[in-house]
Write a structure and sequence with these properties.
The complex is a heterodimer. In chain A, 36% of the residues lie in helices and 31% in strands. Chain A is an alpha/beta fold. Chain A folds into two domains: 2-244, Rossmann fold; 248-340, ACT domain (Alpha-Beta Plaits, 2-Layer Sandwich), CATH 3.30.70. In chain A, the strands form three sheets. In chain A, strands 6-7-8-3-9-10 form a six-stranded mixed beta sheet, sandwiched between helices. In chain A, strands 2-1-4-5 form a four-stranded antiparallel beta sheet, with helices on one face. By secondary structure, chain B is an all-alpha fold. Chain B has eleven helices and no strands. Chain B has a single domain (10-219), classed as MetI-like (MetI-like fold, Orthogonal Bundle), CATH 1.10.3720.10. Chain B has helices at residues 2-5, 11-46, 55-70, 73-79, 81-88, 94-118, 122-130, 135-146, 148-171, 176-186, 191-219. The chains are: A alpha/beta, B mainly alpha. At the A-B interface, helix 2 and helix 3 of A face helix 7 and helix 8 of B.
């Protein structure tokens, strides 16, 4: 639905040239939540601004729904922007306007009649859960509420795409979660395509379907969130995955325990995008005459199921153990036998 | 009692003079508001990185503003005599004071407008652009609206400077309390007249300051 081809942005000053975005290619499907992650200076902020031409690209094309954004005249671009919502890290609300008036602004810009504006604003206020705060000024709202206003405002003209520029970076963890669930909710309810940029991997883990990792203006790695989590290739990606999963060498601290088991087996169950087999432990315990002891685990929920691994210690009759392992292997959960005492 | 304390004050004439001061101040203030906002917007919009970024225009407007702010008001009035004569047809009376009052205070106000506009969050302007707003919408619904408290408090400061300018203008025959204090008080050595005029001017200043502060507080929702 969104196609980005050879997109580049060069900032020139008298003394220096900075290649903020470097020959970037990307396809984003309709209805997906696409995350772009990178450290500050990676060019992700510039990238998202190139999509609606808040920054003019130096070269390359942006095509949204068959419309070549990069070829539009100033006036056409204005109209086109009304179909691209955007939310910001610092919300960027007008403090002189109430919640209701802030949400109405894009409708005023689009020339929507007054009656229609009123009913649309009411609808949006309900959608983002701000009922009762309609007449408050932004200064009277919490950060999370301000971002809800930002989201409602971005959705006012029923956009095709929502661009999120570090939308949760100024919020505390709890508020971040509530805003992320709102975004997922909107994505599912309205089938809206969402592109978000962030430096926080848990944002990607919680809501994105696909992710691209940016470094030095380029996309160095991209794919399904679960795939990137399970097989991070580049060093920068590994670091981001560690943000959420912890360092892989934490597993090794369990080595001592693993070595000291006297009976049964220590298994490592690997979940990759698991949705069907999340109750695997209790299923195994019910079906087979084995004792299962969970030693350590780290499983995160992503948009396409659970990802992570679980270390378990299983004891019982040899044949029962055999069958239990065969059963687990028959599901999509991967099994690795760590010790076999 | 007023007769004994202020024997030389003609209260009726004084009332007229007060009215003239208000008349000049308010009309000049309206003119200053209009020209100040236009000049302030031009300064802001044509500045580097602005929506209408334009080096030459920015230089010209800035030069105009700086020059007219630098000229002492008394000299400005004298310099503008031919212009006033051409525009108003006379160089005496309250209306004749208006061009000088406006040209003297609009550049001052323009700088205050520019400062106010600069304080508008760049992110809000960006948000409006992302919604597909026209430049005119950005100017009227975002820039001017968001900076209203600064524009009003700036106008209050300007109004007070204007009141003192009207007194200066009075000395060369524009009417008002300055004129009254000078010709009826100073020239005739009737110091009670000067005293009453001074008190009245101070009261007028306080009134403007009070209205301005109240308005700024009411408008500021930050």
């Amino acid at each position: 639905m969104i196609s980005i081809q050879q997109l580049s942005k060069v900032f020139k000053t008298n003394t220096t040239t900075i290649q903020a975005v470097d020959d970037l290619n990307l396809r984003i499907d309709k209805g997906e939540i696409f995350g772009v992650i990178g450290y500050s200076g990676a060019g992700k902020s510039t990238f998202i601004r190139l999509i609606n031409r808040l920054e003019e690209p130096t070269a390359g094309d942006v095509i949204i729904d068959g419309q070549e954004i990069t070829a539009l005249s100033k006036n056409q671009l204005r109209l086109s922007r009304q179909e691209i919502g955007m939310i910001f890290q610092h919300f960027n609300l007008l403090w002189s306007r109430t919640v209701r008036e802030n949400i109405a602004l894009p409708l005023e810009i689009a020339g929507v009649s007054k009656e229609e504006r009123i009913s649309r604003v009411d609808e949006l206020i309900r959608l983002v859960g701000l009922a009762g705060r309609e007449d408050a000024y932004p200064s009277q709202l919490s950060g999370g509420q301000k971002q809800r206003v930002g989201i409602a405002r971005a959705l006012a003209n029923k956009p095709k795409v929502l661009l999120c520029d570090e939308a949760t970076s100024a919020l505390d963890p709890e508020t971040t979660d509530s805003i992320l669930s709102l975004l997922v909710d909107i994505n599912e309810k309205l089938g809206l395509t969402i592109i978000l940029i962030t430096h926080e991997m848990h944002v990607i883990q919680k809501i994105c379907h696909r992710v691209a990792v940016m470094e030095g203006g380029k996309i160095v790695e991209q794919g399904e969130v679960v795939d990137v989590f399970s097989h991070p290739d580049k060093a920068v990606t590994k670091k981001f995955v560690e943000q959420v999963m912890g360092k892989p060498d934490k597993d090794i601290t369990e080595e001592a325990f693993v070595q000291s088991v006297e009976s049964g087996k220590v298994l490592r169950l690997h979940f990759v995008g698991e949705t069907a087999n999340q109750a695997i432990i209790s299923q195994v315990a019910k079906k087979f005459d084995v004792e299962i002891n969970i030693i350590q685990g780290n499983v995160k929920q992503t948009q396409s199921g659970a990802y992570g691994s679980l270390f378990v210690h299983v004891t019982g009759e040899e044949t029962e153990l055999e069958q239990a392992i065969n059963y687990i292997t028959s599901t999509s959960v991967e099994v690795e036998v760590k010790t076999d005492a | 009692m007023l007769k004994t304390l202020f024997p030389n004050v003609n209260w009726f004439d004084l009332l007229i003079a007060t009215g003239e001061t208000f008349y000049m101040t308010i009309l000049a203030l309206i003119g200053t508001l209009i020209f100040g906002i236009i000049l302030g917007l031009l300064l802001y919009l044509t500045a580097p990185g602005g929506i209408w970024q334009h080096k030459t225009l920015n230089f010209i407007v800035a030069a105009f503003v700086n020059i007219f702010r630098a000229i002492p008001f008394l000299i400005l009035i004298l310099l503008l005599i031919p212009f006033t004569n051409f525009l108003i047809g006379t160089i005496r009376g309250q209306n004749a004071a208006l061009p000088a009052l406006i040209i003297g205070s609009a550049p001052f106000y323009a700088r205050l407008v520019e400062i106010g506009l600069r304080e508008v969050d760049k992110g809000v302007v960006e948000a409006a652009k992302s919604m597909g707003a026209k430049t005119s919408t950005i100017i009227f619904k975002v820039l001017l609206k968001e900076s209203t408290p600064a524009l009003v408090s700036g106008l209050t400061v300007t109004a007070i400077a204007l009141i003192s300018y009207t007194a200066v203008a009075g000395v060369i025959g524009a009417g008002g309390l300055g004129d009254f204090a000078y010709f009826h008080g100073f020239v005739r050595q009737d110091f009670d007249v000067m005293f009453v005029c001074t008190v009245l001017i101070v009261i007028i200043v306080f009134i403007f300051q009070f209205i301005g502060d109240a308005l700024t507080n009411k408008l500021d929702k930050r």
